[in-house]
Design brief:
The chain is built from 13 helices and 23 strands. It is of the alpha+beta class. It has two domains: 296 residues, Rossmann fold, CATH 3.40.50; 131 residues, Roll (Nuclear Transport Factor 2, Chain: A). Helix 8 packs parallel to helix 9 and helix 9 packs parallel to helix 10. The longest helix is centred in the middle third of the chain and has 28 residues.
Length: 449
């Protein structure tokens, strides 16, 4: 594969890495590694390790991340469909790990698809505050929504806008922002050789200007005292340190912070005044490549006053169903858009003129004045939050049948009507029981592939 690398790229890497250049070339002969991040919204790391069917090795610089063998198939396991983990390249886990999230923060993931970093940010928020996940591509937003729903996130909205446009609508609005910027993808050449062709066609210059526009937009949307992570999966100075230099000159009140997490395999930023940036190289860590910089806008952040809300009203068509659910009705309000019912968490952002893909948790659909709950709602619930539960062991053949959308028998359960289907105590979706036969309500987009 080394022969396929463009000469210009190789020359850039030789100038960048100097005596480490041949270590970099040698990394292409190493097998790529695979990463799994535990979804702590649903299960703790310790509890997951007790039930994990996979051979895992801790990623030393990620609190909830693990390597798994390429012989494993975690995407073909019921726990994946229960949202207990997210599959993500190990070095790509670092940006969201570095961003320091506090309870109640208003957080923006500016380039969010497909959702690996967004779902980690949701774990850090732990069902508090609000997470706004944006991507400029409407098609990519569909996959983003699915991954957020699979993770059981409730306090989110998915929007679709150019960040430069968004910055004019949401100035000084966010406590924390993550920008994993579009880039030339040099760090992914081993994992995805098709990116080499794109690099040859566009080069670093093309992305550098886009990145500068994006980071300026992000700073405009950041509150005073707020923190911003800028990251890429490329090695280029032009796309990394030079972008940081650009924004520091534009905003002298910005400063680069040293992330709390440190690891022997981290390399410093290339310029001495940006040594607190983190560079990941495949010859120093088990992973691909990444650049991460943590920035803060001015010094102090105003202390947020916690607002207490009263319970919201449940729409009439939902009353009977919500007798079965233990759901915190103080965190938001129900909104009915056409026949869809959403639960939208409280926030003070004005998103009226922003293209919204998903305005909150999709609770269900009203059909002929009758409410049908969504799989997204089921995935957001814990076992103890629903009155009637069919809890199947992971090796029960009915689990796969359910995930494929088939009707199953549950004659050992005496109750009738709506049930929450779980695997080993973790929710998958809803069904409706009649005389021991379960009508499958598991939505097509989530089904076993």
């Amino acid at each position: 594969m080394i022969k396929k690398l463009p000469e210009k790229f190789l020359k850039n890497m030789q100038n960048l890495l100097k005596d480490k250049y041949y270590d970099y070339l040698a990394s292409f002969t190493s097998e790529r590694v695979y990463g799994l991040r535990v979804n702590t919204l649903k299960i703790s790391v310790d509890e997951f390790l007790k039930i994990s069917p996979f051979k895992l090795e801790k990623i030393p610089f990620i609190s909830d991340g693990f390597y798994y063998s390429q012989d494993e198939r975690p995407a073909k396991h019921p726990y994946y469909y229960a949202g207990l983990y997210y599959l993500q390249e190990p070095s790509a886990m670092l940006p969201a790990e570095v961003l320091e999230i506090k309870k109640g923060d208003i957080v923006l993931d500016g380039c969010a698809a497909p959702g690996g970093k967004t779902t980690k940010l949701a774990c850090r928020l732990n069902d508090s505050g609000i997470l706004i996940s944006n991507d400029i591509s409407a098609s990519r937003c569909q996959g983003l929504v699915k991954n957020i729903e699979l993770a059981g996130v409730k306090n989110f909205q998915v929007i679709c806008d150019d960040l430069t446009n968004l910055s004019e609508k949401l100035k000084n609005s966010f406590d924390k922002i993550l920008i994993d910027a579009p880039c030339s993808g040099e760090g992914m050449f081993r994992k995805d050789p098709s990116l080499i062709k794109t690099w040859a066609e566009k080069g670093n210059e093309y992305y550098s200007q886009i990145q500068k526009d994006i980071i300026i937009a992000a700073v405009k949307m950041l509150k005073e005292g707020g923190k911003l992570v800028y990251s890429t999966c490329t090695f280029s100075l032009m796309e990394n340190e030079d972008v940081i230099n650009y924004v520091l000159k534009k905003y002298p009140d910005l400063k680069v912070l040293k992330p709390k997490i440190q690891y022997a395999g981290f390399s410093q930023g290339v310029y001495s005044h940006l040594k607190d940036c983190i560079r990941l190289y495949p010859f120093n860590i088990k992973g691909e490549g990444h650049f991460v910089c943590l920035l803060q806008k001015k010094e102090k952040q105003k202390v947020k006053k916690e607002i207490k809300y009263s319970k919201c009203d449940i729409p009439k068509p939902l009353l009977e169903f919500f007798d079965l659910v233990d759901f915190d009705l103080t965190k938001g309000n129900f909104e009915i858009i056409n026949d869809k019912v959403y639960f939208v968490y409280h926030h003070n952002l004005n998103l009226n003129k922003v293209r919204t893909i998903r305005s909150g948790l999709l609770v269900g659909t009203i059909k002929n004045k009758r409410f049908e709950p969504s799989t997204a709602l089921a995935l957001s619930l814990k076992k103890e939050q629903f009155k009637h539960v069919v809890d199947l062991k992971v090796d029960d053949l009915r689990v796969i049948k359910y995930l494929k959308g088939e009707t199953i028998e549950v004659k050992e359960y005496a109750f009738q009507g709506y049930v929450l289907i779980c695997v080993d105590g973790y929710s998958l979706g809803f069904g409706k029981v009649n005389n021991g036969i379960l009508k499958n309500m598991y939505e097509v987009k989530f089904r076993w592939q």
